[in-house]
Every structure is written in structure tokens, then in C-alpha cells.
Design brief:
Blueprint lengths: L1 H100 L1
Amino acid sequence: MENIIDKIVDIDKKALDIKEKTEKMIKDNGKKLSRKLLEIEEKELEKAREIGDKEYNRILKQGQNKCMEIKLATKKECESLDKNFLKIHKRLEKEIFNKLFK
């Protein structure tokens, strides 16, 4: 009888030991998974930052190109207006001169 009780106690100790080892393994695996998840999250954030930076630079370059186009168009328009102004100014000068001295 005592032998049976010893075996039951031994089985109980082994079961408790297995339970503790299993709980420790679960805890350790949870920590490993958390670290791995954090690592994956950091990599994905870095990829997203790189994509965001590329898109930002692309949009910025488009804006700069559009700005240059507008500046060039504005410069041409101003030059055209200056030419027209000079033509009109010269014509008006002649008209005024002719009216004054005729």
C-alpha cells in the first residue's frame, strides 16, 4: 500500500514538474513572440517611413517643377507685357508730341 502511495506521490510530483516546465515554456515563448512582434513592427514602420519619404520627395519634386513652370510662364508674360507697354508708351509719346507741337 505504501508503495502505491509513493508511486502516486511520485506521479503527482512529475505532473507538477511537467506543469511548471510547460508554464515556463509558455511564458518564454510569449516573451519570444512579443520580441519578434516588436521587431516585425519596427521593420514595417521603417518600410512605411521609407515609402512615405519617397512619396513626399516625389510630390515635393512635382511641386518644384510646377513652380518652375509657373515662374517661366510668368516671366514670359511679364516680358510680353513689358514689350506691349513699351510699344504703347512710344506710340503715346509720339501722339502727345504731335498734338503738342502741331
